[in-house]
Amino acid sequence: MGRHAMISDSELMQKLSVVFRHKGFSGASLADLAAATNLKRASLYHRFPEGKSQMAMEVLIAAKDQMMNYVLAALREDASAEIRISRMTERLNSFYLNGEQGCFLNVLASNIIQDNRLASEVKLILGLLIGEIEYFLQQTGFSKTLAQTRAQRIMMLLQGSLVMCRGMQSSKPFQDFIKNLKDELLKQ
Amino acid sequence: MGRHAMISDSELMQKLSVVFRHKGFSGASLADLAAATNLKRASLYHRFPEGKSQMAMEVLIAAKDQMMNYVLAALREDASAEIRISRMTERLNSFYLNGEQGCFLNVLASNIIQDNRLASEVKLILGLLIGEIEYFLQQTGFSKTLAQTRAQRIMMLLQGSLVMCRGMQSSKPFQDFIKNLKDELLKQ
DNA sequence: GTCTATAGTAAGATAGAC
DNA sequence: GTCTATCTTACTATAGAC
Questions:
Q1: Contact, A173 vs A99, CB < 8 A?
Q2: What is the SS3 assignment for chain B?
Q3: Among the four A13, A14, A120, B71, which has the fewest Cβ within 10 Å?
Q4: φ and ψ of A82, to 5 deg
Q5: Tens digits of per-residue pLDDT, A139-157?
Q6: For residues B75 and B82, what is the distance between their CA atoms, to the nearest angstrom?
Q7: Strand D: which positions are within 7 A of a protein CB?
């Protein structure tokens, strides 16, 4: 075969991400990851010399970037609070494919106390996401403590809805979460 | 070694449960499970001829029984709604060891689309738990639809708090959930 | 950059002694 | 009921050709 990349970096991340979200970290074998990307295992090692941990780490960081720079970035745009929320909600919905795509943070949180680097990154990212929602709520006029509590609660509801989707084999819990998100953010 | 059980059935379930909750289904190897129970792999196969799936299934059913017949059973006892709630909350707290013990449903939901029998059981159990909370809320005077919505929301918050505990490496999210549970159930 | 081939290890599972 | 020993398969990882 050729000497050039058969798959772009972003496409590669996307395909790896699907496998990890679906099978979890330990459940995803190199055979699975290779099949999903149409590469052989040795080719994956060429791109990720540290193997599966590195793949998971890079996928995780890509997810963080998308959440921070695209989904939650909507909350900092120049528009009314309501419009910013509905843009964010829309992007969140597409990020999780209406609840049919699991959450990598979620999966890793249930799997990876072993790998310290991954565990730290998960912790860091959860803090960033909550911080971003908290910042929005404070800008909107809520007190620091209320903003903090509420941001944590929203993250709990999001993660919980995704667990419920998998457990109930239905995307309804996530869709309900999406439907109530604006109220959950702005209610008095 | 002897011809008699080295470990009681309930102790066995308990030890297996810890491993599954900590490492997930695919992450838990027979070596792990054997080490935790002080049995050899072959001895585990004697008790669970179908191997790991069967262990997970039996652990799962034991957890369901404890949740239904002990934790949530508090909601059907003969006392005021407030007292029933605080008994249930107390038992829930001890069931999850103040948030330091992960949730098997949660872990399985993030891991086990593969095994259909486990997936069905998880779905069934989630339905039972929600149904039990819903029943309590209806008895307390809430409408059927409100009871339903609220019961689902509480299960989302519970699962979400446990995900957050693992992700943040802190038991605070679960403790906050416990603190707010009565309000979450009874608020107008 | 991708491949085939293969080494080495750990996994799940079984047979048979005690 | 538990053990040691073993089988087979699947996994991670590496070496080297193109």
A1: yes
A2: CCCCCCCCHHHHHHHHHHHHHHHCCCCCCHHHHHHHHCCCHHHHHHHCCCCHHHHHHHHHHHHHHHHHHHHHHHHHCCCCHHHHHHHHHHHHHHHCHHHCCCCHHHHHHCCCCCCHHHHHHHHHHHHHHHHHHHHHHHHCCCCHHHHHHHHHHHHHHHHHHHHHHHHHCCCHHHHHHHHHHHHHHHCC
A3: A120
A4: -65, -45
A5: 999 999 999 999 999 999 9
A6: 10
A7: 1-5, 10-16, 18
Look at residue A141 and give its three-state secondary structure.
coil
Closest residue by C-alpha to C1' distance, nucleotide C11 = B29
Identify the band that residue B3 occupies on the pLDDT scale cut at 50, 70 and 90: confident
**pTM of model > 0.70:** yes
Per DSSP, A7 falls in state S
State whether the beta carbon of B70 lies below 7 angstroms from any atom of strand C. Answer: no
Bases of chain C within 7 A of a CB of the protein = 1-5, 10-16, 18
Single-letter amino acid, residue A181: L
The distance of B158 to chain A (nearest Cα, Å) reads 7
